[in-house]
Amino acid sequence: MERNNLSVGLFIDGGYYAKVNEALEDTCALNIRVSSLMKFVCRQVAALAHCDASACYITESHYFRGRYRVYDAQNKHLLYSERKFEDALIENDVIFHYKHLREVQKDGERVVIEKGIDVWFALEAYELSILRHFDYVVLITGDADHEMLMRKLKALKIHTILLTWDVDDSRTTSTAKLLRDEACTHIELSKLVAEDSQLLAEICERK
Fold first, then answer.
1. How many whole angstroms separate alpha carbon 11 and alpha carbon 124?
2. pLDDT tens for residues 42-86?
3. In this structure, is residue 150 part of a structural domain?
């Protein structure tokens, strides 16, 4: 019998992903391994679809984040870590999308402003879902602003999965309730890690 392969679109909110990584680093000196996370996504989709993981393909993967201009990144000693992470994205065929960050003075403090990333994330995810006819879309984010994106994807009859990781039960990596409620399926990694002691080692690597 011919096997029907499943097409998966993966969209990563880089700001949220970075906060999860920072929390993992602070609590257990670990970082997410991009390749292992993508394999995990395929296994989860396969379990939902009741098929073998070899039949699930991430046919599009995109990463969105604000980034400092090179001079600012160099002054903040971020260039090496940013380039190293980009290498991991490239090696796993993840397309990255960046907009420049701005810093402004507000009430005597320097505040980082990230404008337009959430809108770009939503537009790209929605447009590609129409063009590529994904069977499943996986969103890695905790931002309530993506509630309407989730709703629009469901209107396209696409099974939409929300993948989150509330590492330290704090507001830093917490997931908006509206977003959780809107997802077809919500996968919370902290619960899975608590149930399977090997999963953390599979997905993460030592910092």
1. 9
2. 999 999 999 999 999 999 999 999 999 898 889 989 999 999 999
3. no
